[in-house]
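Question: what's this shape?

___
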Amino acid sequence: NDGVAAANHTKLRKRAAIIGGVLAALVAVVAVAAVFFIRSEWYLAPDGDTVGIYQGMNGDFLGISLSALVGTSSVEVSDLPSSVQDQLARGIRVRNEDQAMETISQYRDQIDADKSRRPRRPRRARTATPSPPTSRPRPQRAPPQRPRREESRP
């Protein structure tokens, strides 16, 4: 009986090793696929005060960031409409880096167009005390009157 029990125990260990190996391989395949999927994702989000281009997924897993900053822009987040600022805070998905650059270019064009539409106000110099007028107002004069001609009567 000891030989049968030992043979069964050996078979059980082989099965456990095979199942463990298959599960480990499956976990490895899923992990590699997840890494490739995550790296295929792109999004725009704030990078400090400007718009940044990120590769990966917005968020983290077990404290590990799932994305990396791959590019920055000169577009100030504060110059964008509040609705776009809200979307950026959550991350705006794009297909790839080229689309990210195109979107940032559109933001820049929109900002430039908005600035050109705003009325420009001349800046006034501020002084501590008001300066006196440089000249006195002139009194209004009545327009000169023409002398009347007397008409001669026949």
In short: Helices lie at 2-40, 82-90, 97-117. The CA atoms of residues 39 and 56 lie 5 Å apart. The chain has a mean pLDDT of 82.
